[in-house]
Amino acid sequence: MQPETKEILSAERFINLYEKHREFLSAQDTSHIAALRDQAMKSFTGLGFPDTSLESWRLTDLDESFNRGYDYHLKPTTGVDFHKVFRCNIPHLDTAIIGQLNGWYVSKDVPLMELGNGIIMGSLAEARKKYPHLVERYYGTMANDSADGFTALNTAFAQDGVFIYVPDNVKSPRPVQLINVIHFEENLFLQSRNLIVVGANAGLSLVHCDDSYNHQASFSNIVTEIHIGEHGVMDHYKLQNINNNSTLVSSVFFRMDASAQLASHYISLNGGLLRNNIRVHFNGPHGHAAIYGIYLMDKRQHVDNQVYVDHAFPDCSSSETFKGILDEHAHAIFNGHVLVRRDATKTDARQSNKNILMTDTARVNSKPFLEIYNDDVKCSHGSTTGQLDQESMFYLRQRGIGEETARMLLMFAFADEVVSKIAIPELRQRIEDMVKKRLQGELQICEQCVLHCNTPEHPVEFQIDLSKI
Amino acid sequence: MLLQIKNLHASINGKEILKGVDLDVREGEVHAIMGPNGTGKSTLASVIAGREVFEVTAGEILYKGKDLHKLSIEDRAREGIFLGFQYPVEIPGVSITNFMRTAVNEIRKFKGLDPLPGGDFLRLMEEKKRLVEITSNLTNRSVNEGFSGGEKKKNEIFQMAMLEPVLAILDETDSGLDIDALRIVANGVNKLRRPDNAFVVITHYQRLLDYIIPDFVHVLFEGRIVKSGGKELALELEEKGYDWIKKEQE
Ligand SMILES: Nc1ncnc2c1ncn2[C@@H]1O[C@H](COP(=O)(O)OP(=O)(O)OP(=O)(O)O)[C@@H](O)[C@H]1O
Ligand SMILES: [Mg+2]
Fold this sequence. Notes:
Chain A is an alpha/beta fold. Chain A has ten helices and 22 strands. In chain A, strands 1, 2, 5, 6, 7, 9, 11, 13, 15, 17, 19 and 21 form a twelve-stranded mixed β-sheet that branches. In chain A, helix 2 runs antiparallel to helix 7, helix 5 (124-130) crosses helix 6 and helix 9 runs antiparallel to helix 10. The radius of gyration of chain A is 21 Å and the shape is globular. Chain B is α/β, with parallel strands linked by helices. Chain B has a single domain, classed as 3-Layer(aba) Sandwich (Rossmann fold), CATH 3.40.50. In chain B, 38% of the residues lie in helices and 28% in strands. Chain B has helices spanning 41-49, 73-78, 96-110, 118-131, 149-163, 179-192, 208-211, 231-240, 243-249, and strands at residues 3-12, 15-25, 30-34, 55-63, 66-67, 81-84, 91-95, 142-143, 167-171, 198-202, 216-221, 224-229. The A-B interface holds A 389-392, 394-403, 405-406, 409-410, 412-417, 420 and B 46, 49, 51, 53, 72-74, 77-78, 82-83, 85, 88-89, 91-94, 98-100, 102-103, 106-107, 110, 142-143, 159, 163. The structure holds adenosine-5'-triphosphate and magnesium ion. Adenosine-5'-triphosphate binds next to helix 1 of chain B.
């Protein structure tokens, strides 16, 4: 099968591709998943790729990204030894590591790790073969294919990605780090599909990184479904550090059963165009979701955070805290939509988006939005956009601190409200360093990234010590 | 002469606030500046510190014989000018320790010195905390965030003690202080007095001057220093208010 080369991204391309390769794509499917695929393709055929005529894409124009032209592969990209490409290393952080290269699961050992405590993690493709019923119970139940062309396309073409299953009453003893490295010698379109299930009373801390390794353009369409069972606790981090030629559309769907707790962090350090679709659905009462975002953008970078929280049950609380620093011609969009349904009494929902503009060419469009159908709720939303506080600048400089350093201190302090919420100390330290470097303009893609990528000339060991998980 | 201000005019948004200030401060001296609200005392302090929102339209400020005009805010600070703010700003997310370490080391760098080793820095912090009788853990907190009015003022004196300025301008550091805090602040100043440095204290209250004995008292009125005298001038103002000065001006 020849890879599709250098074509622009258009709906027709994928409609034709699906027709041609439908058999191949669904070869391993259960009938249920095969049906989902066809259904999703039908949705995609109707929806196509979103454009600026849609309200939620009004301010994010993908034309330039689409027109770059990309290869697309229905088989894992070969030719790069993943283990030589990078070593994942947050100093002193003890994590279980799951690697992806261009959206495909990679491993030195086994495609699916099954640990003594019942935790399963590894390739989604493999999990679908080995645990079809388990996967089927959750797969496709959170993502909504009928609403969004990207999600529909992802479901139609889903092949591999990551599967993590934490059984009821099990708490993952160490954080799991899921790393997707983009590395190819041509422009690449890639899709991956992740499914994460945190059982009732279970706990998982997941650090999900998207990193590019070179400066080749890429376009990623990543869909992640996350289920958190009753009284389950999840701490989730999404780190985005890709090159300026790359586009990332990430859609994360959370479903939270009664009393589930979620803290989800979106840390956007670099990228040409980053779009985060974050959807939280409360599937029972007493849930709590805290969503944090920090984005540091410059040049012509574009970041678009779309958060949708569905308060479908009473006594749940949600908070959104997004902060951004925008330099040069960067453009940020924040769209927060909280829906409080009729029965969702005692809902507590907060939205906040604060931005600092370093230049008068940087732009922000911020729209926190509450849609409330119940009287007995506590809701607040707010949004501010401004420059660095001049009083504070004067104060710092009056103590002998140079203008540049003073600016840095204030920007770092601004980011700190979000960064300080990172619950893993080693990760927080690392992100603080990266934010500092980013603010000083020192952060090179991948050279200093959270992965601590090594140069290809220095092959390094990539080890997962299973005994520690 | 440490500071020489000659016919200083300054305005903000086209509105003239300082209308010809003259002031001479020598090493070893303490000057008090008094005057009604809104007459330009804080403006004068800000202009000396180099705050850019104020435009100097005429006159000059000489510091150690050099014209300050071209010097940035931070370079003035590094040369030893310290401003104790009337309203210290809250800076969430910046700890006092981090703030002071940055300030101390940037000043050292300016003077061609290596950064102060961590241990030495912490010892210095402890020593200066004792000097201004800061017992609580204020220094681990963000700069001024959630501080009471009195704590903010003490924190200004603490910073002054850390940076050991040559010319310290204290803008109403006594306002809002209880008797004990007032004594602590005054003590802090007195302990830092040296023959080669000078203080300009802006105040509304004669009581501060019982603790910090000024060599000169000036009255700033409608953007000009209209009267100067010894410490007895402060007593006279306390007794009679500013009406007689206003009358004298008419
Ligand atoms: N940023 C500003 N914009 C416009 N006017 C200003 C600004 N800052 C100060 N002023 C004006 O300048 C004048 C002098 O203010 P300043 O703060 O220097 O007075 P002050 O003598 O320190 O008063 P107080 O005793 O109340 O502290 C006032 O009329 C004030 O309103
Ligand atoms: Mg004042």
